[in-house]
Amino acid sequence: MARVSLSLRSSWVKIHRTPTFTEKQALTDDTPLTQEPRVWQDVHWTARVVKNEDDDGWAVAMFKTGQTEPSLVGPWTMGRDKKNPKPLDGNAFITLVKTASEFVRRSEQQLHASLHQSLSVEGTAGRVTVLLDIEPDDENPSATLTARGEAGEVLAEWKVDPTFKFNRHAVQAWVDAGMKQPARAGQF
Fold first, then answer.
1. Angle at 128 between CA 126 and CA 132, to 5 degrees
2. Helix (H) or strand (E) holding 45
3. Torsion angle in degrees (nearest 10) through CA of 23, 26, 27, 29
4. Please, what's the b/e burial string for 68-83 (b: 16 or more CB within 10 A of its CB; e: otherwise)?
5. C-alpha closest to that of 125 among 155, 96, 159, 90
6. Domain boundaries, given as residue ranges, for the chain
7. Does pTM surpass 0.90?
């Protein structure tokens, strides 16, 4: 795990931490990190203040290094003149990185939960855990329906349609029917 320390210099904060191997590689590149009023970056993130297309205000877009689309876009405050945006600084950047990182982490968790579902029901031989694992693919998405016993042994496993109906009632009916291959796509 990387060690993080902060040091204050004049009116901005500089982040010091023990870099990982890939960060050391990135830090040795000839491209310096930008720390300007409308663009602020570190090895992993770039914050860019942009004109808000919806109204007269400003927004800040957070880009993960190497990505072309922002991971998070949020409102940004006006400066004292009420026309230009408030300049980015180290403290604001740290807060934006924490917010964007948390947003990305939660989005990844939500995607994982939607692609890997699990329900436990009672079968004739005890508790059965049924798993639906969806493999997303633009051209040929697929899913696998797996039933496991209490000891983790595979009781049944079938390839099914990724839009498979997966709820407690349907899973219980499938287990009660002997966990045979589903007759129609998306149905038990």
1. 175
2. strand 45-51
3. 170
4. eebbbbeebeeeeeee
5. 155
6. 32-88, 117-176
7. no
Name the one residue in this structure whose structure tokens are 């009023």: 37
State the Cα–Cα distance between residues 54 and 29, nearest whole angstrom: 37
Q: What is the DSSP string of 114-139?
A: HHEEEEEEEETTEEEEEEEEEE--SS
Residues 148 and 103: their CA atoms lie apart, in Å, by 33
Both tokens assigned to 142: 């697929």
Amino acid at 92: A
Cβ–Cβ under 8 Å, residues 148 and 128: yes
pLDDT for residue 15:
39
Beta strands in 26-70 (DSSP E): 39-41, 45-51, 58-64
CA distance 114 to 61: 27
Helix (H) or strand (E) holding 74: strand 72-76
Q: Among 2-11, 40-49, 68-77, 98-107, where is mean pLDDT lowest?
A: 2-11
Q: Chain centroid to CA 35: how far?
A: 26
